[in-house]
Amino acid sequence: MVEKGFPFQTIDVDYLQGQTYEPDFVRLNPACEIPVLKVGSPPEETVICGSQEIIDYLDRFAHRGTDAEARPAVDAFRRRCMTVPVSEISLGVTRDAHLLELADFSQMFRTRLASRVNRVSVINEKIAAHPELREAYQQKLARVLHSEDQISTPARLRGLLDGLVLFLDEVDLLLRNNSNGNPLPQQGESWLFGAEFTNADMILACILARVDLLGLAGKYWDETERIFLADYYRRLKKRPSFMQQCVPHSSFA
Prior knowledge:
By secondary structure, the chain is mainly α. It has 13 helices and 2 strands; from the N terminus they run αββαααααααααααα.
């Protein structure tokens, strides 16, 4: 919303305390997930759920859209980003004693993690208390159990992290190819697909912010490894939209 220049009001919904499982929220979004965008007022209210869906909706009204020539590549990269299991990696890292020792978490973040509700227990309680929403809760429970299974062993978590490394390698190579032979892009010269900061950059920004929040940015990019990605993230952190949204609101489901 900030990047596209739309005015909005933010209502914080606390993942960690299970607020996405409250009946009023589930009626708004049966997927029990954020973000959710509400436009207008009843009875003319429109509700759009999911980051990708919200981006596509806003593009219908944005004064500046993605260049037609770049759109296929931008859309393909967005689809690639959606294959990165960000939530599972987040949960796995915060539960792995070895990775927790390596990660540079703030004390506030550690305290927040310790207060997280048990998702399975909470959802089962909601199923019993709100039978009219049983289908939505059961579908969310199935996704939660699948997510838990993906990080059920250290080997499975390592597999997800290896996949993240491959993704970051792809990003670094893309940025390198866009550098026109320069050792590093000059500040503000180039994003993923040229001078325009596209929807692909917006989705990537959220992924990189999460990796940084988990204390793993220094492990995956710096001045000697994935240097184009490191330079990209340095410039990204200076964008007003990133400073306003990605930094203060980094959390996970």
